[in-house]
From TrEMBL:
Keywords annotated in UniProt: Methyltransferase, Transferase
InterPro entries in UniProt: Erg6_SMT_methyltransf (IPR050447), Methyltransf_11 (IPR013216), SAM-dependent_MTases_sf (IPR029063)
GO biological-process terms attached to the record: methylation
Protein name: SAM-dependent methyltransferase, type 11
Domain Methyltransferase type: 75-173
GO molecular function: S-adenosylmethionine-dependent methyltransferase activity
UniProt xrefs under PANTHER family: GERANYL DIPHOSPHATE 2-C-METHYLTRANSFERASE, ZGC:194242
Annotated SUPFAM superfamilies: S-adenosyl-L-methionine-dependent methyltransferases
Length: 284
């Protein structure tokens, strides 16, 4: 199942998410935040292992839109530190495989899952979303949160996802998309500059998915919810100071500027947020 060679990844994206000493920094930050790494609870991790706007609430909302059945085989593409894959595994009582181009993130995803006693139901592989190391029709559900903005070749991404989905299988995603307000202000949490950022508009993404043979089941613009969440979060961090346990562990000292730009981009309509579910036709 593992690729025989290091997958080709755009250097700007790989560099953005590279974090070689992440494991030791996460463990130290857990202790600094008065959490016990030897008795971890899933909720201890949501500030870092749900690396998307609205965190765990957005994951729960998208999972609810799925009307899921137990026992599915799920693939989480661009899984990050694995928070959503662990949530889905618990919710659906199923196995989830996460793939991410970052070996550092996969390493920490494995470490956290071991500490939560979940290694028998979640697994993580370093792999490129454009060359998934799985056979055809292997999965019931592909899950994606905040990935496509790092992927330039979107037709290849959705072709590859469709290839690994069974007939009748579903693609659930929560994505940052281009808005009508113009170019984004950089840096943002997914890219320090435009070389790692490739935003599609809502219209382009819908058209592309239809062209690739997916049928829409659910589409919800959640930009307003994201904007309100970001405003509350920024207000809270102004009042309470920075927590030792947060996304700065993944993104470094530049994180406050990235978060500030994320809010500005939302306010100025430069980005939008969409939750959606699509299906491969059952008779495919
Ligand atoms: C903003 S993070 C979201 C992580 C996770 N989905 C979550 O919501 O917590 C984007 C993730 O996509 C991964 N990624 C970007 N390009 C990728 C690619 N071509 N193949 C696989 N993973 C990729 C990054 O390494 C990063 O972990």
């Amino acid at each position: 199942m593992m690729p025989a060679h290091e997958p080709m990844r755009p250097a700007a994206v790989a560099g953005h998410y590279s974090s070689p000493d992440l494991e030791s920094r996460v463990l130290a930050a857990l202790v600094a935040a008065e959490k016990n790494p030897d008795q971890l609870r899933p909720e201890d991790l949501t500030a870092i292992d749900e690396f998307h706007v609205r965190g765990a609430a957005a994951t729960q909302e998208l999972a609810a839109a799925l009307e899921p059945a137990p026992g599915l085989l799920v693939l989480d593409v661009g899984c990050g530190l694995g928070g959503a894959s662990r949530y889905l595994s618990r919710l659906l009582d199923c196995h989830v495989i996460g793939v991410d181009q970052s070996s550092d993130y996969c390493h920490v995803a494995r470490m956290l899952s071991e500490r939560l006693g979940m290694s028998d139901r979640v697994a993580y592989l370093q792999a490129d979303a454009l060359e998934l190391p799985f056979g055809d029709a292997a999965f019931d559900l592909v899950w994606i949160q905040h990935l496509s903005m790092n992927i330039e070749d979107k037709p290849k991404l959705y072709r590859e996802i469709r290839r690994v989905l069974k007939p009748g299988g579903r693609l659930a995603f929560y994505e940052i998309l281009a808005g009508p307000g113009g170019e984004v202000h950089f840096p943002v949490p997914w890219a320090r500059d435009p070389s790692a950022s490739f935003l599609a508009s809502q219209e382009d993404l819908r058209r592309l998915l239809t062209e690739e043979g997916f049928q829409p089941l659910f589409w919800q613009d959640v930009t307003k919810d994201g904007l309100e969440w970001f405003r509350r979060r920024q207000q809270k961090s102004r009042e309470g100071g920075a927590s030792p346990f947060g996304l700065h562990l993944l993104l470094g000292e530049g994180f406050p500027a990235m978060a500030g730009n994320q809010l500005r981009n939302l306010e100025e309509g430069r980005i939008t947020l969409v939750e959606a579910v699509f299906q491969v036709p059952p008779d495919n």
